[in-house]
What we know:
The complex is a heterodimer. Chain A is of the alpha/beta class.
Amino acid sequence: MSSINSLNKALALVLAGLIGLNGCAVKGLSPTAGPVERGKKLSVAVFPVENLSGKPAPLKEMRQALMKDITGSDVSLLGDEKIEGFMARHRVRYTGGIDTETALALKAELGADAVLITSLEQYNESAPPEIAVICRLVSLGDPPLILWMDIMGMAGDDSPGILGLGLIDDPAVLRGKVLRMLADSLAGHLSGKRERAERRGGKKRFEPKIVYRALSLPREKANYAVAVTPFFNSSDRKNAGEIVVLHLVKDLAASGNFSVIEPGVLRQKLLNFRVIMNEGLSLADEDLVAQSLGADLIFTGEVARYHDDESSRGRPNVDFFVLVIERSAKKMVWASESYNRGDDGVYFFDYGKVNTASALASEMTRSLVEKISEK
Amino acid sequence: MLIRRAIKGLQGGILFCILVSFTACATRGDVYRDPNMDFGAIRTVAIMPFANLTRDQLAGERVRDVFMTMLLATGGVYVVPQGEVARAALAAGITNPAAPTKEEILKFAVFVKADAVITGVVREYGEVRSGTASANVVSLSLQMIEAQTGKIVWSASSTKGGIGMKERLLGGGGEPLNDSTEKAVKDVINKLFK
């Protein structure tokens, strides 16, 4: 009986891997190997957590907790010593993404199928605690492909319930809850279930306020290969540019209309070509990067505000500008300005209020991607 | 009695005529348009970074982003991306991109292949106070320079928000800054296309 169960699980795993690969295939580039093989557990290397919160946080504990939650699903995780040894040998210092060279080396040396990249977006221990974690599973092929990505952002007072019984004051409890939800989301994806983010549509109130859409950007499903370059951060929040990029990457990948290039690959290209972005990407640089990656569209932008009011009465405030350049035409095909506050459209008893900047940014990028892909 | 009524009616009529004649003489003092310029020939514009005279260090960038998107959204002209503008400004050796000289503009326009260059100044951006009342205000002025000649062909300004009767009586801090910015930019764009 147990052998039948394990066979079913293995088949589900292979199917999930194939579906994931199909959804993430980059036009013009073909993956050399799939992330999973028949009858074999998915071997995953968990990278150390990248801290984008700008504050000290228990990153090691978070990584261990995440690994513990993931172990329950159908994946086998590589040991810490192996990963640390690999990172030391290859001088891997950047853990917020993976480039093709490192991915292939990780696959060849440690036999891993995929890497789990985790970024801590927000961490606040004072009451009510707030935490937001971005996680993605990237295949170790040429090129590395995003197989799964999810973002969980929660505040202790998200669901106070009757008489405040639902309030979470302990940051460790909230942390555990968020990491468990991420692990469940990953397990759900690997077992073939569709992600939560794919099911729910964007809300009207979070749509971009000003939009330019060129006629040359077709409204039909075109499966564009897209690269999202780092956004300029004009806000007072550290790493806000990277954070909004990750939100956008997640929603673009989840939409199914775009094949998103792994941010780590793009970062390496920008470094290799020594691209310096003065107020944005110039058309010459854009062409160079897009040609080398096989990208049809290049997303770029600027974050003007990314404010998280760390109090129960506070309201987050996010404001960003997105610009899309099409490689073939070398023209801007999309420009939009999105700005919202957590209490936009909230009139009665804080019903519908968004408590964290992470959740707000997620809603805004989801609505933005829907707007771009709408027919 | 009848004469009095007639005089009153006449007075009212004169007053009405005066008011009507005032509106006829109204001019748009904050707009300049070169009468010899064919604005229909402008297809591509480059927007230079705006000069910022406010306390908010990023006001220029914010207003420029909104202006760029709204100008593109009109569908009337194509706007050169900011990154390309920055590269061309560097290549043309413009020392102060917010206030380029005529020679610099002529050189710059060749690099970006633009028909016109827009420069601007953000004069107010943020909260203003008067007594106990406060409100957000946005004030900007823009000018368009023809790329071939380096001549100013259009100039306009707009101010939105600020402390009005509502803010003095009811308080509340006025409308959000983003809304005021959008209104001011929309006003300036309307002045361009009228």
